[in-house]
Specification:
Length: 385
Amino acid sequence: MRSARLAALLIALPLLAAAAPPGIPRSDAIDAEAARLMATSQAQGLAVAVIDDGQVVHVGAYGKRNAAGEPLLTDTVMYGASLTKAVFAYWAMQLVEEGKLDLDRPLAGYLDRPLPEYAGFLTPYSWQHLAGDNRWRQLTARMLLTHSSGFANFAFLEPDRRLRIHFDPGSRYAYSGEGLILLQFVLERGLGLDVGAEVQRRVFTPFSMTRTSLKWRADFRPNLADGWTADGRVVPHAERSKVRVAGSMDTTIADMARMASGYVRGVGLSAESAAALTAPQLPITTATQFPTLQPELPPARRRADLTAGLGVIVFEGPQGPGFYKGGHDDSTGNTWVCVKPSRRCVVILANDVRAERAFPQLVRFILGETGVPWGWEYGAMDFLR
């Protein structure tokens, strides 16, 4: 059933003839364009990495890391935000490959008690509010990694702050950090894994990501990026003491360059598992990503070139299939874009949320036109050119 659905989805994608990718600009040209866009957007700090044929060809950092004016460097620790989700999915696929996790097995089968009986995991409400709605028994790892759990992004965003399932699990896309936290709980409670330690051992260490962690490390403090909000207010870097796979990662642009290089080459995974991460898994049926529980578009208005992968968004563009993942909070804007045929990627970490207006132009300058669904990701934002 699932194989037939996936095959139909792949057939439905536009059969575009992939254009030859343009040449990657020289590093000095990337530096100049980054500086121009920072000045136009008023962003105080920005870092960029470029991957070509799976290899790191450019890493640069520009502007300031804090209000004191200290420079942002390629080894400055920055907030990874929701890029954490893509890293977590990469490790989860290693577990799938080893037979420890089945993407389509109901997660209830990994737990020794019903989910609503557990409390106190990262949040005060946990899953007790799901009692009485047995649809939680349908939830699988694939649903959580494709944001089709039925949860709001976070329960604290609900009017009554009560976690609930809004639609049948697996039936549609609606971004949910809450779903990723549930999968983290199942891996820790059901499989007995220390998620922070395992991601460190299985991803960060093999990729030589020496200044990356899913929770705060004191050695980050001497070279740390604060953030700037849309109104120019400085926000100190948060010291996140708990692993939250929905978005607790601290990292550097140099480390994320290594991550993107390894990811796009499938290092640490079989070819089949690496391909599954960025294969179309679930149609996306909304006009924009946020708000997460908005009504679905009528079928005739839905984009056939836009689908959920496992921890990433998959798109079809003029250079062939690609994928991306964004990360955002009030003082952080990140994006990670890859084009699969050329194994080219751009990673942008910004410690100033105002830089997001520049992302489409900076990615376009480096990779050419890719087809990234910027309007779906950011809504009606006024992008720079």
